[in-house]
Amino acid sequence: MGHDHNHAHGVTATGKHRSRLVAVLSITLAVVFIQVIGAALSGSLALLADAGHMLSDAAGVFIALLAAWIAARPASDLRTYGYQRAEVLAALANALILVVIAVVIFTEAIRRIGSAPEVQTDIMLYAAALGAAANLASLLILRRAQKESLNVRGAYLEVLGDLLGSFAVIVAALVIKFTGFHAADTIASALIALMILPRAWHLLRDVVDVLLEATPKGVEVRMIREHILSVAGVVAVHDIHIWTITSGVPVFSAHVVVEDAVLSARGADQVLDKLTTCLGSHFDTEHCTFQLEPASHSEHESRQHA
């Protein structure tokens, strides 16, 4: 017997914050345009690296927006969860883009070692300061939303890296301006590349957890089992599965063994209501499916999981 509350697949976590992503995309593209011009006029690799990083951010935000639109499409007989997993695939693409950008920047920085060209520090400084201000504004826009969506979190982490990258460019410009040490531009470029990789790794790890249907962070199977067993009439629970469809959409299923007397129409409904309320209130999991089994039938059950 199955019982499921809240089967509707509504707006995903990313979709809820679409307007924030559009605002960040607009800011980022504007700054990329200015920084590319600034890099061309100043000859700064660090500024160009920062512009390239921000361009990858813009691409990531665009992918997230596209995925949010795709994920909002309704479910069908062929895709019973709809296209919500598209958001996770977009986050995967985002992480891979970050890795490519980091490798390209670092390779160019290595190539410039020993032959750093002169840099126009004033242009470099102004463009980097503008980038830092824009990144700070984008961080404020995404600060709350990043806790609810992998894609928004990916965009937030990228913008945070951009802010650090802009600070690195500012420091390099000041060093060159006051000391004449032009290699600071190359060093800043390499640092920006190295800052990108850890963020890409963390995002990639989260994506892999979702794709492998790992238990959501902060959820303990042991505690859930204890809560289910505390419901009156429940004898045992097995075949527990907890996974994530996409950000903000955890799913739970289990086989629950109950006393034979509970399986009257009214008794079963009461147990199911208690179980779904328990999962929703204690573990923030509203999409729950339970299979109720009479205790007298448990010996016929083939238990595949805990």
Give a topology summary.
Layout: H1 13-16, H2 18-42, H3 45-71, H4 86-112, H5 121-142, H6 150-179, H7 183-211, H8 221-229, E1 234-244, E2 250-258, H9 265-283, E3 287-294
Parallel strand pairs: 2-3
Antiparallel strand pairs: 1-2
Provide structural commentary.
This protein is mostly helical. The chain folds into 2 domains: about 15-210, Up-down Bundle (Alpha-lytic protease prodomain-like); about 220-300, Alpha-Beta Plaits (2-Layer Sandwich), CATH 3.30.70.1350. The protein is about 65% helix and about 10% strand. The protein has a 3-stranded mixed sheet with strand order 1-2-3, with helices on one face. Helix 9 (about 265-285) links the parallel strand 2 and strand 3 (about 285-295). It starts with 12 loop residues before the first helix and ends in a 12-residue tail after the last strand. The model is unreliable at about 1-10 (pLDDT under 50).
